[in-house]
């Protein structure tokens, strides 16, 4: 191993070789690369996994984390994503508690620090992978490979493909998984140091601890279980010194000594393999029991290749996806937050020119495997095999080989495999340096790669700071991705730019004519712009494509209600509730429909259902109070208003509605207090001042009435009722002046 380190002598200066300084350099560089993301917003999946995830809130019992998926849904639900990561969610909850709410800075800082810690840990991991586990009689490890491990750790620290994991808060699942994955691997290595000193019991303890850390990694993200496979490969190749080349040679020569291969006769190795196998099988069994109803229900747009009828088409496309992942590791310049929805069109025949990428990938892999298995140099075999193992084994859960995954390409799943790539790249630089006399150009290339990747990390971290920048950055990478256009449109709609949002939503629907969410959002905007016919057509098509799309059914009902098609609207609302039983907004809109039809009892029942499902549903409470007020049920309106204010004590609209009821009931003092409280909360609402003026007018406080009429008219000069009441008051005041009152 000293040979590889000597080959890298001209690249890594000796001044940074001591372990402390090497780790300090790696840690500093890793933090600098992603520091720009520290004050970014919650973006993309962060909204669902964090902001809208009830498991982060203190009123949710901690025990629920063990029964819910990563997004806060019950694992037993048929709609659950089945991503079981309770420890990651627990760290989000701690973040929420320490930050005092959803303040993204604290969440981002933790992610950046985690990446820094993992990069530092990589120095020790690469030292073991490059140098092996040989100890002196005093228990000190030799062949530390300081240059190779430092270079590989630097390449890992600055790799731009990590940006999604570090800058996107949801990426913490991958970071925590990687952290415990590496600790599990280092713990497994510790077993062999202890076995040299203290015997079998201590060695077994470290193996069991390694399995436990692997289970912890799996509870952060499913990928964590693959550390057991990597530990097994390391044990067999490095500790057991198993040589595939030797076995092949003996088989070809029909050598009878094949039965005496050391690995097969090594009781300690067989015992450790038994522990690893039992641990892995137990984890998988528990994981499957927790999943409950089977695998998650992914759709064709999530992973189109997995839905292809032809096995050949599936195989070709899966391998093309692998080649794209390899390209992202090799040239991480074209990065995208989402690669689905037409971003990568299916390869449907072997005549597609993209098949060349598959051929190139497998030529490289086969070449590396041949060198890893058949090279006469045992050091080279070991490094290449471990590099390939670290590249391939953690990637297996995302490969579609064992089960369908919910994405085409995902940069986040390359966080751990990139360590294998960095190891192979470092070995390649060492081999290149060994066979050339011109060392400086190689050093320049290495430094250039480090600098360019670090720069790309900084640029990409900036793009992840806000959804607008993130989504727009994807247009140049995946212009055919309907989800990119959809997300830009949604962002523009949230900013109030409906015209631009419509343009992007239309493009999303054009690229994917079955994109029901884009149809729903476009229909909503058209509804608000009173383009009701087209809105109805879009929403009708959406529910035709996806009959259980509850939100589209509700929005269709709203449009039909606006078109005075009341029976159809009621049917649409009822269908929405059938598909989503706990749907307070739909009950609210159903109540509005009944109110328009003067079905007052049905309206009150619908609004009551909305408040039962969502006690903070202010609009439903308000409508109940107003309807009861308008129908003369003042006592009942007062009771409902008081109930609502107990649940939502700071809602000024509820204060206003209840104040109106109390005023009509001649409870002037209490009514006045609520009006003033509502005005303090929102002083620029003309009706608040106008109705308070009416109260004072009735009550006989005419000067106060005059004051608030005037404020109301300043805020809304066109308010007819206020003008009339103000005129009446002025005439009354003039009459009183004439009488000398």
From TrEMBL:
Primary residence: endoplasmic reticulum
Transmembrane is among the record's keywords: yes
GO cellular component: endoplasmic reticulum; membrane
InterPro entries in the record: O-mannosyl-transferase_TMTC (IPR052346), TMTC_DUF1736 (IPR013618), TPR-like_helical_dom_sf (IPR011990), TPR_rpt (IPR019734)
UniProt GO MF annotations: ATPase binding; dolichyl-phosphate-mannose-protein mannosyltransferase activity
Coiled coil: none
Top EC category: transferase
UniProt-listed GO biological process terms: endoplasmic reticulum unfolded protein response; outer hair cell apoptotic process; positive regulation of endoplasmic reticulum calcium ion concentration; sensory perception of sound
Database matches in Gene3D superfamilies: Tetratricopeptide repeat domain
Keyword Iron on entry: no
Keywords of the record: Endoplasmic reticulum, Glycoprotein, Membrane, Repeat, TPR repeat, Transferase, Transmembrane, Transmembrane helix
Highest taxon listed in the record's lineage: Eukaryota
TPR repeat coordinates: 482-515, 516-549, 550-583, 584-617
Transmembrane segments: 20-38, 112-132, 173-191, 203-219, 225-248, 269-288, 355-374, 386-407, 413-432, 444-462
Membrane topology: Multi-pass membrane protein
Pfam families membership: TMTC_DUF1736 (PF08409), TPR_16 (PF13432), TPR_8 (PF13181)
Annotated localization: Endoplasmic reticulum; Membrane
Annotated metabolic or biological route of this protein: Protein modification; protein glycosylation
UniProt-listed Enzyme Commission number(s): 2.4.1.109
Domain DUF1736: 294-365
Entry's family note: Belongs to the TMTC family.
Role noted for this protein: Transfers mannosyl residues to the hydroxyl group of serine or threonine residues. The 4 members of the TMTC family are O-mannosyl-transferases dedicated primarily to the cadherin superfamily, each member seems to have a distinct role in decorating the cadherin domains with O-linked mannose glycans at specific regions. Also acts as O-mannosyl-transferase on other proteins such as PDIA3.
Protein known as: Protein O-mannosyl-transferase TMTC4
């Amino acid at each position: 191993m000293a040979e590889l380190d000597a080959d890298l002598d001209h690249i890594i200066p000796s001044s940074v070789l001591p372990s402390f300084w090497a780790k300090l350099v790696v840690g500093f560089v890793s933090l600098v690369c992603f520091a720009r993301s520290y004050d970014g917003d919650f973006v993309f999946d962060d909204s669902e996994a964090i902001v809208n995830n009830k498991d982060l809130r203190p009123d949710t019992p901690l025990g629920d984390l063990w029964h819910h998926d990563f997004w806060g849904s019950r694992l037993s639900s048929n709609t659950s994503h089945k991503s079981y990561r309770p420890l990651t969610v627990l760290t989000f909850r701690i973040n929420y508690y320490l930050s005092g709410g959803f303040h993204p800075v604290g969440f981002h800082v933790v992610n950046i620090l985690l990446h820094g810690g993992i990069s530092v840990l990589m120095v020790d991991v690469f030292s073991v992978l490059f140098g092996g586990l040989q100890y002196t009689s005093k228990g000190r490890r030799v062949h530390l490979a300081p240059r190779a491990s430092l270079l590989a750790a630097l390449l890992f620290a600055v790799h731009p493909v990590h940006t999604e994991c570090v800058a996107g808060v949801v990426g913490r699942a991958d970071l925590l998984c990687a952290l415990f994955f590496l600790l599990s691997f280092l713990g497994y290595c510790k077993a062999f140091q202890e076995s040299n000193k203290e015997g079998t019991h201590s060695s077994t303890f470290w193996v069991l601890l390694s399995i436990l850390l692997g289970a912890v990694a799996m509870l952060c993200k499913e990928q964590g279980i693959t550390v057991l496979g990597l530990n097994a490969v390391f044990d067999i190749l490095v500790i057991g010194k198993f040589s595939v080349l030797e076995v092949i040679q003996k088989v070809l020569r029909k050598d009878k000594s094949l039965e005496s291969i050391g690995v097969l006769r090594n009781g300690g190795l067989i015992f450790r393999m038994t522990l690893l196998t039992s641990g892995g099988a137990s984890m998988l069994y528990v994981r499957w029991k927790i999943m409950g109803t089977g695998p998650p229900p992914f759709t064709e747009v999530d992973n189109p290749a997995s839905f292809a009828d032809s096995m050949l088409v599936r195989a070709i496309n899966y391998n093309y996806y692998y080649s794209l992942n390899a390209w992202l590791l090799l040239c991480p310049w074209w990065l995208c937050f989402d690669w689905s929805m037409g971003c990568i069109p299916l390869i449907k025949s072997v005549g597609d020119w993209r098949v060349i990428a598959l051929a190139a990938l497998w030529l490289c892999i086969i070449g590396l495997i041949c060198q890893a298995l058949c090279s006469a140099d045992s050091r080279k075999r070991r490094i290449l095999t471990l590099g390939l193992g670290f590249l391939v084994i953690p990637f297996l859960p995302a490969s579609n080989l064992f089960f369908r995954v919910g994405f085409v390409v995902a940069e986040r799943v390359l966080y751990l495999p990139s360590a294998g790539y960095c190891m192979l790249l470092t070995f390649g630089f060492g081999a290149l340096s060994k066979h050339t006399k011109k060392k400086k150009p190689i050093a320049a290339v290495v430094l250039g790669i480090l600098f360019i990747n670090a720069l790309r990390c900084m640029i990409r971290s900036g793009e992840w700071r806000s959804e607008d920048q993130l989504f727009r950055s994807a247009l140049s990478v995946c212009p055919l991705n309907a989800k990119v256009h959809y997300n830009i449109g949604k962002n523009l709609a949230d900013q109030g730019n409906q015209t631009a949002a419509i343009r992007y939503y239309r493009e999303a629907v054009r690229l994917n004519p079955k994109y029901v969410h884009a149809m729903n959002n476009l229909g909503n905007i058209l509804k608000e712009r009173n383009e009701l016919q087209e809105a109805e057509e879009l929403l009708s098509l959406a529910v035709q494509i996806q009959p259980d799309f509850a939100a589209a059914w509700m929005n269709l009902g709203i449009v039909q209600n606006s078109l005075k098609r009341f029976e159809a609207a009621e049917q649409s609302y009822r269908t929405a509730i059938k598909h989503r039983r706990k749907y307070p907004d739909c009950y609210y809109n159903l109540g509005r429909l009944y109110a328009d039809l003067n079905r007052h009892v049905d309206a009150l029942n619908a609004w009551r259902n909305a408040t039962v499902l969502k006690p903070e549903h202010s609009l439903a409470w308000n409508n109940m109070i107003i309807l009861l007020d308008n129908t003369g049920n003042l006592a009942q309106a007062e009771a409902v208003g008081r109930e609502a204010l107990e649940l939502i004590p700071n809602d000024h609209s509820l204060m206003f509605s209840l104040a109106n009821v109390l005023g009509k009931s001649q409870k002037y003092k209490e009514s006045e207090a609520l009006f003033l409280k509502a005005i303090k909360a929102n002083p620029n609402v003309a009706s608040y001042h106008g109705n308070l003026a009416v109260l004072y007018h009735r009550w006989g406080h005419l000067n106060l009435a005059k004051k608030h009429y005037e404020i109301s008219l300043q805020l809304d000069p066109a308010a007819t009722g206020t003008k009339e009441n103000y005129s009446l008051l002025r005439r009354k005041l003039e009459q009183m002046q004439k009488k000398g009152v």
